[in-house]
Amino acid sequence: MADQSARDLLRKLGLPRNQLEDSFALLEQAGLSSALELRDAWAKPADRKWERLALARDIKEELMSYFESEMGFSYGKMQVPPKETCTPAGPNFAMITPGGQGMGPWCGYH
């Protein structure tokens, strides 16, 4: 991936030519012309480059899947337990499961 351009990476995803050119123009405007720069933007959420990138959501998802498979892992999504299995835990509306496991960004398990 070191010498690969972002255009080559978009081509690998199988995008139609007009969508590929539009997406690559957006990447160039953002200063992400190589595949390595694009992966770094995805891998470093603190600088928010990936978040501000004006690519279509489906293209971003394909790129994320590509980067994950290239690195040999994938991020999963947790299912939220049914409301009936959650109990309010205190005045701050913190939520816990019946087993006492905290849920959400307010539980302190970041």
Using the alpha-carbon principal axes, give the shape: elongated
Q: Which sequence of SSEs, written as H and E, runs from N to C? A: HHHHHEEE
Largest sheet: 3 strands, antiparallel
Q: How many H/I helical runs?
A: 5
Mean pLDDT: 81
Give me the count of strands.
Answer: 3
* Secondary-structure-derived class: mainly alpha
How far apart the termini lie comes to: 31 Å
Strand fraction equals 5-15%
Side by side, the strands of the main sheet go 1-2-3
List low-pLDDT spans.
none
| Helix percent band | 40-55%
Radius of gyration: 19 Å
How would you portray this structure in words?
The chain is mainly alpha-helical. Helices cover 44% and strands 5% of the residues. It contains 5 helices and 3 strands. It has a 3-stranded antiparallel β-sheet, with no helix packed on it. Helix 1 runs antiparallel to helix 2. The longest helix has 15 residues, at 57-71. The two termini are 31 Å apart. The model has no long low-confidence stretch (mean pLDDT 81).
